[in-house]
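Support request, please re-run this one:
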Amino acid sequence: MTDNGHDYARGDEIDLSEADAAGLLQMGAISDGQLLPAKLEDLDSMKLDELKAVAEREQIDLDGATKKADIIAAIKAKREAA
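Re-run finished. Output below.
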């Protein structure tokens, strides 16, 4: 795979935004087992679309939440309950 002029070999680890990872999952380019879990402390620095992608990937019902703080709270609550 090539991205921005850099060639990646099978098995290489790369940093992706949550939104990019969700897109690759939906396309079937990667599997869930290839993703490393996001860290709780990273949530605050994520953009809204990235947070929504995390929630979708982790099958978290946002129950209509649209504000960043509410989505972060929902993600943290689900993770802590697991």
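The chain has a mean pLDDT of 80. The radius of gyration is 14 Å.
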